[in-house]
Design a protein that fits this description.
This protein is α+β, with helices and mostly antiparallel strands. Among the domains are: 50 residues, no CATH class; 61 residues, Alpha-Beta Plaits. The protein is built from 4 helices and 7 strands, in the order αβββαβαββαβ.
């Protein structure tokens, strides 16, 4: 049986805008290791598994979760050293695509997160949204998110 003859391009059935992952099974027969293939944008496009030997199923779950994150947007953020818990949370969510340290000791991360998460990050002390990619950004005047700033230890404003 030729698998390529059975595969129908999603554009023929009107599903080309739906996130897709190609699944390659039975890698144990080819003596291959489980892996995720990514496109030039870093998105998961294929997963290689062995269902029978339960190899790569964790990778499949990760790839599906990543692709089902609707309305995800790439952003470059700066996290102060004091906000390390935010960095850990982003890594745990597999949202970090790249990272480097800045001269002031803070970390600059390239992340891919839903708009809602960007809004949460923008309101988090010690986090600054430096750049975002994509259109129709919610609550964004011009090209920047509303940023929260840490409240100093001085007196609070009164009305």
């Amino acid at each position: 049986m030729n698998i390529l003859r059975r595969w129908m391009p999603c554009s023929q059935i009107g599903a080309d805008s739906i996130p897709q992952i190609i699944l390659y099974n039975k890698i144990d027969r080819l003596e291959l290791q489980p892996r995720i293939d990514r496109n030039a944008d870093g998105k998961a496009v294929a997963v290689w598994i062995s269902a029978e030997k339960r190899l790569g199923l964790d990778l499949l779950a990760d790839a599906v979760a990543e692709r089902l994150t609707r309305f995800a947007r790439r952003a470059r953020i700066r996290i102060e050293a004091s906000a390390g818990a935010v960095r850990s949370r982003l890594y745990a969510a597999k949202a970090v695509r790249d990272e480097h340290s800045a001269e002031d000791g803070s970390m600059e991360l390239n992340v891919e997160v839903p708009d809602v998460e960007l809004l949460v990050l923008a309101r988090t002390a010690g986090v600054r949204i430096l750049q975002t990619e994509g259109e129709n950004m919610p609550c964004a005047p011009g090209t920047t998110y509303l940023q929260s700033t840490a409240v100093s230890g001085g007196s609070s404003p009164r009305s």
